[in-house]
Write a structure and sequence with these properties.
Blueprint (H helix, E strand, L loop, with lengths): L9 E7 L14 E2 L2 E2 H10 L6 E5 L3 H5 L7 E5 L7 H10 L7 E6 L7 H14 L3 E6 L2 E2 L3 E4 L3 H4 L19 E5 L12 H8 L15 E3 L5 H4 L5 E5 L3 H12 L3 E5 L13 E3 L13 E5 L6 H9 L5 E4 L3 H13 L4 H4 L2 E2 L11 H23 L2
Parallel strand pairs: 1-4, 1-6, 4-5, 7-10, 12-13, 12-15, 13-14, 15-16, 16-17
Antiparallel strand pairs: 2-3, 6-9, 7-8, 7-9, 11-14
Helix pairs in contact: 8-12
Amino acid sequence: MNRRAGNQAVTAIVLAAGMSRRMGVPKQLLPSGDKTLVERVLESVGNSSVGEIVLVLGHAADQIREQIPGEGIRIIVNKAYQEGMGSSLRVGIGAIGSDTQAALIVLADQPFVRSATLDRMIEHYQRFRPQIILPTYRGFRGNPVLLDRSVFAEVATVRGDIGCRAIFGNHLEEIARLEVDDPGILLDVDTPEDLERLATSACLPGVPPTPPAQLEIRTPLREADAQSVQPELVVVGKDAVGIALVKLARLLGFTTTVVDAFLSPGALPEADRILHVLDFSLLPECGDRSFVVASRGQFDEEALEQALGSDALYVGLLANSKRSEELRESLRRKGISSDRLGRMHAPAGIQIGAQEPGEIALSILAEVVGARRRGEQKSEP
C-alpha cells in the first residue's frame, strides 16, 4: 500500500473484529472486485489524509492478518471481540498515541466509502473542531464517525454492540452533521445477499450513482381516491419487517410510502411512493398518516424527530426496550415535548408473541389501526 503523506493529528481506527454471524465465514475476506472487503477499506483509508491506521482484528485474526499488507498499518488484536463492537472501540482508542487529536472510526464492512469523504471530514474537523462528525447522504446518517480526543474516555466505556452512537445523546450541541456526496457511507455488507447486490451496484467507486427523484410517485391517486381520506403508512427502512409492513398495509387499504435512499424502481411494487431523502416535509399533505421507523439503528433518531414533529396519528419504532429508552432520552434532550414523546410507540406493536417478520408486522399494523380508530372516536362530536 503506497501511502501519501497524512495528517498525523487524525488516526483511523478500522474495526474488523466481528464474527460475521450472518455471513457464516469471515466477511472481511470476501471478494470485492479484485480485493477483499478489508483490503478495499484499507486502500480507501490509506489514500486519504489520515496519519496512522490502526486495524483492530478479533475473530479469525490470524487468517485475516495473512491477507493484509503490513506497510503503514498497525494491527491490534481484540481478544474480547465476542463482547461486541464496544470492546473493539476500547482497544482501538487505547492504541492511539498522545499526540492524536481525533480518530476516524471506520467499519470494515463498508468497502465503498470514498477517500475524498474521509478527507472532507478531516478538513471540516480541522476548521470547526466539533467533538463528533456524522456524515449524511440525502439526509441519512452513515459511517465512518470522527471523534475528537475529548470524547475518547467516554467512548472507552461503551459496552456491547451499540458502537459510538451510545454517546451521541450526551453531546448534542457538539455534533456536526456533514452532508457528503457519497452513497458508500450507507452501504454495508452483512449477508451474502448484500454482497451480491453491491457487486452490481451503481454506487461502486468511480461510478457516479444516478440520483432518483427525491419523491418517486409510483401510484398516482385516482380522482375518486383524492376526494376521500385514504390512510397512509410511511415505513422508514426496508428490512424484512419493513417489507412485510408495506405489503400488509397495502392489503388493508393504506397508501404506502417507503423511505430509503437506494430502493430501485422495480423493487417492492407494493410501495405507492418512495422518498429517497430523509425529509418528511417533501411528503404531500395527509390528515391520516402513520410512521413506522424500522431502520434498525442507522438513522432512527433523525426519522423519529421529524415524525414526532408532524401531526402523525401514530409513530412507532422497531427496536428493543433498551434502545427505545435511549432514543426517548436523547429526543427529550433535543427538546421534544413530553406530549409528543408520549405519542411514540416504542417498542412498536401489540403483544402477541410475534417472532417472524410477518407476525411482527401484523402486531404493528394492529397497533396502527387501534391508534387511528381511537383518534376517530375523539374527533366525533
